[in-house]
Amino acid sequence: MNADRFASTPKPPYYAVIFANQRTPADPDGYGRAADRMVELAATQPGFLGIESTRDAGGFGITVSYWESEAAIAAWRAHAEHSDARRQGRERWYEHFELRVAKVERAYGGPAMAGEGA
Q1: What is the pLDDT of residues 12-42, one digit of tens each?
Q2: Radius of gyration (Cα) for the chain, nearest Å?
Q3: Which residue among 26, 73, 77, 110 has the highest number of C-beta atoms inside a 10 angstrom radius?
Q4: DSSP secondary structure string, 15-52?
């Protein structure tokens, strides 16, 4: 298992921003640099808790970022560099995306031990 791929989050409640997207084939290098920069920048923002991200060979990806509060999410959304990256995403990097914000009320990890229920 590659444990560093999982975000280390506190005991709930906290918030998850779920960003599902389909990439275009345009500008893969520019996209990669921007994505890396957004992760780096988000990690410096007050209220940021962690991130998990995956992308398949067909360009479909899901990124979940975790935040202490809705105010922290709003501040991240308003960040100038993040706003610019979102604009570029709409203009050239994404065919389609869906963004959802959820409050995490329960969280646990696994695998479950024999005889344990979920």
Answers
A1: 999 999 999 999 999 999 999 999 999 999 9
A2: 16
A3: 73
A4: EEEEEEEEE-SS-HHHHHHHHHHHHHHHTTSTTEEEEE
Quick one: pLDDT band at residue 4, thresholds 50, 70, 90?
confident
Which own/partner pairs from 80-85 qualify as long-range (CB within 8 Å, at least 24 positions apart)?
81/37, 81/38, 81/41, 82/38, 82/41, 82/42, 85/34, 85/37, 85/38
User: Residue 6 carries which side chain, given as an amino acid letter?
Assistant: F
Q: Among 11, 30, 14, 3, which residue's Cα sits nearest to residue 104?
A: 14
> Is pLDDT at 3 greater than 80 in this prediction?
no
**Structure tokens that stand for 31 in this block:** 């996209």
| Contact criterion met (CB below 8 Å) for 52 and 42 | no
- Element counts in the chain: helices (H) and strands (E): 3, 4
99: β partners: 19
Is 6 strand, coil or helix?
A: coil
- Rounded to the nearest angstrom, the gap between the alpha carbon of residue 98 and the centroid of all alpha carbons in its chain is 12
